[in-house]
Amino acid sequence: MQSSPDRHEYPAHWEADVVLRDGGTARVRPITVDDAERLVSFYEQVSDESKYYRFFAPYPRLSAKDVHRFTHHDFVDRVGLAATVGGEFIATVRYDRIGTDGTPASAPADEAEVAFLVQDAHQGRGVASALLEHIGAVARERGIRRFAAEVLPANTKMIKVFTDAGYTQKRSFEDGVVRLEFDLEPTDRSLAVQYAREQRAEARSVQRLLAPGSVAVIGVGRAPGGVGRGLLDNIRDAGFTGRLHAVNKAFTDKELDGVPAYRSVRDIDGPVDLAVVAVPAEHVPQVVTECGEHGVQGLVVISAGYAESGPEGRERQRELVRHARAYGMRIIGPNAFGIINTHPDVRLNASLANERPRPGRIGLFAQSGAIGIALLSRLHRRGGGVTGVTGVSTFVSSGNRADVSGNDVLQYWYDDPDTDVVLMYLESIGNPRKFTRLARRTAAAKPLVVVQGAGSAPQGHAVRATRLPHSTVSALLRQAGVIRVNTITELVDTGLLLARQPLPGGPRVAILGNSESLGLLTYDACLSEGLRPLPPLDLTTAASPADFHTALSRALADDTCDAVVVTAIPAVGEGSAGDAALAEALRSAAGQVPGKPVLVVHVELGGLAEALSAAASTAPQAATPGASHPFRALDRLAAKPPEDTPRDGSRLIPAYPAAERAVRALGEAVRYAQWRREAADPGKVPESIDAAIDEKGAARLIDSLLARGQGLTLGTEETCELLGTYGIQVHRALLAPTPDAAARAARDLGYPVALKATAPHLRHRADLGGVRLDLADEDQLRRAYAELTELFGTPEELRPVVQRMAPRGVDTVVRAVIDPAAGAVLSFGLAGAASQLLDDVAHRLIPVTDREATSLVRSIRTAPLLFGWRGSAPVDTAALEELLLRVSRLVDDHPEVVAVTLEPVVVAPHGLSVLGASVRLAPPPARDDLGPRTLPAY
């Protein structure tokens, strides 16, 4: 690496793995003096035309001077990056800082010339776009604010790279050359372009894994049994439509049960898209090398013995990821359960599940293999008393998720036409900030239901530490549109409802059925879920299918009803024919008003559950021998071919064995539908906020303060000055180390005043008696001073201050923190011990819009105190919401502000007063979610 004394230290944090447009990966890293041979080899493989476009003249080879120039950088004024695959260069980019006259310069010059060269074989893969993001981030880090590039008019591909990036730019034409100049400050458009490219690339990388044209199972035993042999059998038995190969270095025969057999993946004639690896961990590196050299696109590593086994296994896992990415391959696993794709054009079951689930519209992700088995089993058997109304489109069990994670799969499902609902079991979230961003976008298009483990992350998972409670993270996920449930039973219940029923238009629920008691239980469950149930309609136990049809039709036609729950108990002696007749009656009535959801609550009524989920025919079904037992029909249904469930989106009615489960699922659907409606108009930051903000002044102040050290909590004067640049005025509090000092402070501020003890054990604890209010004159002040020192100790222990009295109101607390995992979070609650004990605090992700600020104020349980509870005067919540917006803007504009606390904020009937404030600064991270696209580092 660079070692000369005039060169900066090698910037290892610039190294990154990126996903390219075609789903493959490449490594981006700085070019060093050790890369001379690689650079020459790379240049020799570039076409003469590409060389001409780069140097504006025939340039067949690089001179020694060129090689020295292109490999010797100071990593400040001259920087070169390379994209590599298999350790070899496939593209390069460099910048050279220039002055206003276009000659080489150093800081404070803030412009640089940038130039690219991409190997012809890798053009069209989005390599240049990825390199532009990374070289732009490097330049901003080094104080460069603008790039200039000179391009020949015929080099349309490179011009498009610059123009499509979304930066603010200007173009000129002189001497036969197009000159492009563009600012590097991210814009809304450049971020949108970056996120769109990220989504396409990561979705494509997952699509290559889930829909391969050829699969090799590596580690297949010659005798039946064993993991590898089981995987091969599952792929073959599911009817995989592509080419299937068995690989084992001990094979001597050319076939294994009709499947072509090979000793190595290298021996396979033709491409291999996916390798399923089931060999001992110590043999995996050799397998990865063989797969990489053969051009395999991705790996599903079933093998265990990695990070879940301890520190040695964790290092083995890191090396596995580095090894695979060096060849441009992505990995599901290790320690994975496998993947499934039920699409008729694929029919892939590369998992340890012996039976492929029914095709359907649900995308299923589980980090845990055991939970994956349980979820697949429930969906396949329609077990747990839940009617199986649909099946699975795709299934991914990521195991240790060393590479492909839930974020990647979300990118794929976002625009997958075969997936209507996403169900995820997450033991950990490696990048919550990105997950929240992707979840918000996905949830705006299709439901996303998540169970998240509340305990510590499994050993195999690399997880960012978070200082936020689990309940807070869950609340933030809900704000992003995630349907957050607590158990896998609720996951399946909710998913089945959303997969085949429309979203409810509101919380009004009609209840009808042939059991008065079951109807009342459903009514109470609706109240518990915050729904608005109508009085139950009892059809009596004598109700016929025709009665159910009439009642359901009438309820669905009622404009005061948004959803219907049908309760049904079996009639004595009724068989499958009666169940089928009732199911057909309900389906027929529901079909007349397709815009409202219908759910059924049944009591051990297996025949009705089967009939409701029947997809092949809508006619009444003939009785089947043995079907009278309520669960036997479900058992026989599980044995039917998977193709029984349609993909045509036909409406099927979910049935539940308990009112609480049905209503809980409906409640989640109601809340999600409300979020969808609100997400369509998320709000904005009012322009009036911008008028009172001095963003540049705040930046100058922050830079000067941080020049003192790496991180610091600001003093009172500095805090007031910084907050003042964002229109947040803090009431002055003057130190009062003696009674005479207190009297002088009061005269300066003007009576009436407050005397407060600011010692840590008394600060913000008015309930302990460390505050004296409404002191009208010096005599009262001195008496109060004497009382405090007599009760709590010396002035040195109390640290008393004097502050001018603020108008009376409700004491509140506003906080903002930068959490390492969740990102910037704004919190609000009332001040006082009661709110702290009850954890009555609401949270929103920053930046916050006007609508989000309004909902934040109203989200706490004690919010009625702000709106005139029990005859008190309502306070100025508009001023409070404006304060929240200002704090949000401060933290969003300046990532160096890592913590803000305003306590107390007294909200009066007119206006508010910030009586205490603290701010903490720290250097911003080198890279964040606004930076260039990268895969998690290993």
Characterization of this structure:
It contains 29 helices and 39 strands. The strands form 6 sheets. Strands 1-2-3-4-5-6-8-7 form an 8-stranded mixed sheet, sandwiched between helices. Strands 11-12-10-9-13-14-15 form a 7-stranded mixed sheet, sandwiched between helices.
Short description:
The chain is an alpha/beta fold and 938 residues long. Helices cover 36% and strands 22% of the residues.
Count of DSSP helices? Answer: 29
Shape assignment: flat
The low-confidence runs, each spanning 5 or more residues with pLDDT under 50, are 1-6, 383-389, 615-649
Spatial arrangement of strands, main beta sheet: 1-2-3-4-5-6-8-7
Evaluate the radius of gyration.
33 Å
Helix content bin: 25-40%
SS class:
alpha/beta
From the N-terminal CA to the C-terminal CA, the straight-line distance is 20 Å
In percent, how much strand structure appears in the residues? 15-25%
> Averaged pLDDT, please?
87
* Annotation, overall tally of beta strands: 39
Largest sheet: 8 strands, mixed
